[in-house]
Specification:
Length: 373
């Protein structure tokens, strides 16, 4: 399930930026992890083992040759012994620099003030790259001056990105019909598409899976009861909420398509019988609810959840799509994020339960209701 979630995050990056950015970002993350794991391995092994293959010298730069290009002072600081580890560090720093320069350009195209944070991070990556190349500089607390500069710049950059990144609504205002247009956001200049995206931002679509407060363990048929027997005999209520009815007025109509299936969650154990991860699989077909209850801004679906087992547990997976009909034209919610120009097509007509954050479909994880709503 975690792999599926990360895979969908990668696909979202492809849709908002491009496949090269997503692939290089993944490569950079793997390279950073490899460098960190190598350093940890060396620290744990200490002097008890022969040097790792990654630390062996592959190539040594001649001091005389370096002097002709860099001069005497820089040659003294230059790391002349080249190993796999050093190459990985330089490549990692170069990738960090390049990726954040691209992110800065992307932020500029979207009129996003986080551009300054990405520029700081790219400067930090550049500083770290030169810190590895000129490793002969004085070391202070494990890092040379360029290393400390890299750490400071990257830390500042991340803080700026977190604080200044535009919210989806701010991105819409800055790039929609009333904002500045760039080649990357031309679809938001179309008034119909811009209104569709704005309604989706304000729709507040959420999914709640909860215990049914009206549930009775021994529910019996009682024609005088205020709550129908089908609701009282269901132990689980799935609530699909949105502000769409209040946003569109009486002239338009909203319908909801929903599918609910059971997830079987079981523990994967090691040879010693210790659980080390969980496995999630979809059980059976879409379930029909015991009952439905419609409110002004929500639809409640009532289900009976099977008893839990010792070896596994069962949880509900929900996929919902809100369909707004305006002047005979259908609009599907939730719409993709503002920076994603994906258009609806028959490809998205059916929900997929092996992934989350599917365009035009709400799910119980991505659209989980917030407690302060």
């Amino acid at each position: 399930w975690n792999v599926s979630s990360e895979s969908e995050a990668l696909k979202q990056t492809v849709r908002e930026k491009n496949s090269a950015k997503a692939l290089l970002g993944l490569t950079s993350a793997i390279l950073d992890l490899s460098v960190a794991m190598e350093a940890l391995t060396v620290k744990l092994l200490g002097s008890r083992q022969t040097p790792l293959h990654t630390r062996k010298i592959l190539w040594e730069i001649s001091g005389e040759s370096a002097k002709k290009i860099l001069g005497t002072k820089l040659t003294k600081l230059l790391t002349k012994k080249i190993s796999i580890r050093l190459g990985a560090q330089v490549a990692s720093g170069a990738l960090l620099t390049g990726l954040n320069i691209y992110d800065a350009w992307h932020a500029w195209q979207w009129n996003d003030p986080s551009i300054y944070g990405y520029l700081l991070i790219s400067m930090g990556g550049l500083s770290g790259t030169f810190g590895s190349i000129f490793g002969g500089a004085a070391i202070y607390l494990g890092l040379n001056p360029l290393g400390w500069a890299a750490l400071l710049l990257i830390g500042m950059g991340i803080s700026v990105v977190v604080m200044l990144s535009s919210t989806p609504l701010e991105s819409w205002l800055a790039n929609g019909p009333f904002g500045e247009s760039n080649s990357i956001d031309l679809y938001l200049q179309d008034s119909s598409e811009a209104l569709y995206r704005l309604i989706s931002l304000l729709a507040g679509i959420s999914i709640t899976i909860d215990k049914n407060p009206d549930y009775e363990t021994q529910a019996t048929f009682d024609f005088r009861a205020e709550v129908p027997h089908a609701i009282r005999s269901a132990d689980t209520v799935i609530r699909l909420e949105s502000r769409l009815p209040g946003l569109i007025g009486a002239l338009d109509s909203v319908s909801i398509r929903a599918e609910c299936r059971l997830n079987k969650i079981s523990a994967v154990t090691s040879n010693k019988g210790l659980p080390y991860q969980t496995k999630t699989e979809i059980v059976g077909k879409a379930e029909s609810p015991n009952a439905q209850r419609i409110h002004a801004n929500s639809l409640e679906l009532f289900f009976v959840t099977p008893n839990q087992h010792i070896t596994h547990s069962l949880k509900w997976a929900v996929r919902a799509q809100f369909i707004l009909t305006r002047n005979g034209e259908k609009h599907y919610f939730p719409a993709p994020p503002v920076k994603d120009d994906t258009k609806y097509s028959p490809t998205f007509s059916k929900p997929e339960f092996t992934k989350i954050n599917q365009p035009f479909w709400a799910d119980e994880i991505t659209h989980k209701a917030k407690t302060n709503d």
